[in-house]
Amino acid sequence: MSEIDRFIDQPVNWLRATGPESDVVISSRLRMARNLANYPFLSRLSGEQRIAIIQEVGEAVKRSNFLKHAYFISSTELSELDRQFLLERHLVSRELFLEEGRSAVAITPDEMVSLMMIEEDHLRLQVFQSGLNLVETWRIADEIDSELEQDLDYAFDGTLGYLTACPTNVGTGIRASCMLHLPSLVLTKQVHKVLQALSKLNLAVRGLYGEGTQASGNFFQFSNQITLGQPEEEIISNLEGVIRQVITHEREAREYLKKKRKSKMEDQIWRALATLKSARIMSSSEATQLLSLVQVGIDVGVLEGQVTHTDLNQLFLLIQPAHLQKINGKELGATERDARRASRIREYFSRVIL
Amino acid sequence: MICNICGTKEATIHLTEIVNGQMAEVHICEACAEEKGTEFKTYFNFGDLLTGMPGLEAAPGASGTKTALICKDCGMNYEDFAKNGRLGCAGCYVSFQKPLATVIKQVQRSSSHVGKKPSRISKETRSVHDLRQLQEKLRKSIQEEAFEEAARLRDEIRQALAKFKKVKRPKDE
User: Fold this and answer.
1) What pLDDT band is residue B75 in, cutting at 50, 70 and 90?
2) pLDDT of amino acid A4
3) Residues from chain A contacting residue B47 (CB–CB below 8 Å)
4) Euclidean distance between CA atoms A192 and A338, whole angstroms
5) Block means of pLDDT (10 residues each) for chain A, length 354 residues?
6) Which among B87, B109, B105 is positioned nearest to B96, based on CA atoms?
7) How close B29 comes to chain A (CA, Å)?
8) Closest CB to A149 among B20, B50, B118
9) Looking at the partner chain, which of A159, A204, A216 has a beta carbon nearest the beta carbon of B112?
């Protein structure tokens, strides 16, 4: 698969850590669901209808200024490893390959936009941005959607809006989300309190975190829950408002750590670096935890000038299982992967002086 | 805190999710996390959230008569939707209108869409959509106590409704 292989050496644009508030917000994403009016939804689609939809959308993609240079990839061209690789880069979803029949995806060369065909809905458009920039993701998605609808008839109801396979997406069909890194709130054990306060605000949060030396990355995904009854701009500004509050809490917790627990925190960060510099075998989860600590190190100024968020975000991606295997050119067992991962990390941190 | 999966070891990894105003947590020990992999599947998928909702079982078939509710466009049985939370086609929204209204009320804020519309839609759909936008604007202006604006919108809605009736009446009578 030559087109996908072009991505291997390319840093992911939306992981550049250059956008607004990128010390806390890693990325913003907008996902838009659309269905074609003249076909049933996914569960009732025949094999021929799947192919017909992909073809119809393919023609619209060719005529779209935004998408005409996109790589158009059919699921039949993708090996299991390629699928995993695209999944790790967030360019496709698991659902795209869940069922037997054909599906497809169009990805812009800069990887900022991907259009999935035959996912849970006929169309799932995704737009990414670095940092907190939901407004821009909506602007781009809106523009592409307006281009595509010149050629496609969408299932739309005057009262319910855009019709989707699942009523949780009906209306605008948009789900905006941001990935946040909240290590200071986790370390100060404040995260539970903050999330609890947010739980009544019609938004969805998912987070995986841990304490002490255990596996975790302190990453949290925030997204809008409601898709019906609010205009797109309002959905986005509400979510952004909440995220700004969380950013403030995280920065306060960071200041607290800097002032009150400086020596203990520095100890943890340097220990993490020592492990990253010397380990010979490293699991995905251990790497995530240690790299998260290094991120904290950058934020509190311990590693001034030596490591950047941009590099760390890219490294984080390169040590994912499918990426290790794509770079290697062939499949690797779990043990081999852990060794390659450790060596890749050592190589990167060799420039850091302890 | 004890691991939710094995129930024996101390849990050190926490998965927190907030969906539908409910905060849910899963606590897992390191060994179980290792076994399950770092990539946790979401425990509370939006779609899965639908299944098991009170509104779903209250489908019309349950009111004594045993006739199943079936979509006249795609032939989907409402019971299938209650099981997996996915509809069969756009027509299902019409065929299952009543029970779906209950479901939508529970997962969404309102029952009508405001926001973008496609440029290629029928005149009828467009005027329904425009009317909904006006009604939403009216609701907002009342909320913000902008009563002059509200009065203007009310008149505009009246006019739009009158137009509707003109279009509809010949067919109805």
Assistant:
1) very high
2) 84
3) 120, 166, 168
4) 32
5) 80 86 93 97 95 97 96 94 92 89 95 96 97 96 97 95 95 95 88 80 74 59 90 93 93 90 88 95 88 88 84 89 91 93 94 83
6) B87
7) 9
8) B118
9) A159
> Cα distance from B8 to chain A (closest Cα, Å)?
17
In whole angstroms, what is the distance from residue A106 CA to residue A113 CA?
A: 8
Q: Would the CB atoms of B125 and A142 count as touching at under 8 Å? A: no
| Other beta carbons within 10 Å of B168 | 11
What region does A8 belong to: left with phi over 0, alpha with psi -120 to 50, or beta? alpha
User: Which pLDDT does position B33 carry in this prediction?
Assistant: 67
Q: Residue B79: list chain A partners with CB under 8 A.
A: none
How many Cβ atoms are within 10 Å of A335's Cβ, its own excluded? 9
Rounded distance between C-alpha atoms, residue B23 and residue B4, angstroms: 16
Best of B10, B87, B111, B137 to substitute, by most chain A Cβ atoms within 10 angstroms, is B87
Is B125's CB within 8 Å of A216's CB?
no
- The pair of three-digit structure tokens given for residue B60, joined into one six-digit string: 């019309």
Distance (Å) from the alpha carbon of B151 to chain A's nearest alpha carbon: 22
Question: Does residue A25 contact residue A169 with C-beta atoms inside 8 Å?
Answer: no
- Calculate how close chain B gets to A242, using CA atoms only, in Å: 14
Here the ipTM equals 0.86
Asked whether the beta carbons of residue B50 and residue A283 sit closer than 8 angstroms, the reply is no
Question: By the CB < 8 Å criterion, does B101 face chain A?
Answer: no
Q: What is the pLDDT of residue B36?
A: 58
Partners of residue B19 on adjacent β-strands: B22
Q: Which two tokens stand for residue A118?
A: 């035959």
The residue type of A242 is V
Contacts of residue B28, defined as CB under 8 A and 6 or more positions apart, other chains included, come to B3, B4, B5, B11, B12, B13, B14, B15, B36
**B33 contact A CB<8A:** yes
Partners of residue A226 in chain B, C-beta under 8 Å = 107-109
Rg (alpha carbons) of chain A, rounded to whole number: 21
**Interchain contact B38–A (C-beta under 8 A):** yes
Written in H, E and C, the secondary structure of A21-61 is: CCCCEEEEEEEEEECECCCCCHHHCCHHHHHHHHHHHHHHH
**Cα A310 from Cα A129, distance rounded (Å):** 14
Direct distance between the N- and C-terminal alpha carbons of chain A, in angstroms, rounded to an integer: 41
The two tokens of residue A353 are 């002086």
Neighbour-count burial of A17, counting CB atoms closer than 10 A to its CB (0-12 exposed, 13-18 middle, 19+ buried): buried
C-alpha A221 chain-centroid distance: 9
Dihedral sign for Cα atoms in the order B124, B127, B133, B135: negative
Q: What is the pTM of this model?
A: 0.85
Give contacts of B50 with chain A, Cβ < 8 Å.
166-168
